[in-house]
Amino acid sequence: MQGSENVAFLAPTFVQKFSAARVTDRRAAVCPKEGAHGLRMGRRSEKIKGRKDAQNAQRTKVFARIGKMITMAAKAGGPDVIANKALADAIDTAKAASFPKDTMEKAIARATSVDQADFKESSFEAYGHGGTGIYIDVLTDNTNRASADIRTALNKSKLKIASPGSVAFNFDRKGVIQVIAGSVTDADELLLAAIDAGAEECELDDNDDSVYRVITEPANLTPARKALETNGYAVDIAQLEMVPKALVTVSEDDMERNLHGVDMLQSLEDVDGVYMNATTA
Question: Which part of the chain is the TACO1/YebC-like second and third domain (predicted)?
Answer without folding.
Answer: 120-278
